[in-house]
What we know:
Elements: H1 12-20, H2 27-45, H3 48-51, H4 54-61, H5 73-81, E1 100-106, E2 111-117, H6 120-131
Antiparallel strand pairs: 1-2
Helix pairs in contact: 1-2
Amino acid sequence: xxxxxxxxxxxxxxxxxxxxxxxxxxxxxxxxxxxxxxxxxxxxxxxxxxxxxxxxxxxxxxxxxxxxxxxxxxxxxxxxxxxxxxxxxxxxxxxxxxxxxxxxxxxxxxxxxxxxxxxxxxxxxxxxxxxxxxxxx
Length: 137
């Protein structure tokens, strides 16, 4: 699927195609695409006409989602949406110098595939991204 530069309004199928696109791009570009999609979904959820449809959406999609939210927690979470901006959501994508790419035969896929190899520097980056800098031992 080709998406032209600029603002695009995607339906669910197109968003899924963009989120999964791997053939002509790297995993980092795929992660960036997924970030754009998640921010767009977040912004769309904040629109009043969508908020009114949340109960119907929950009913239709409940079998697709596993969560520890109770039905009573959902309205509280929805009230928080108006206090958050998508720019306040943090998405992380490691720089290419932290990841070594390689090719290897993957038996479960029965083919040679691109793989990532990582070392302690990437592990440290992941931990710092999730929990902040870790104190020295």
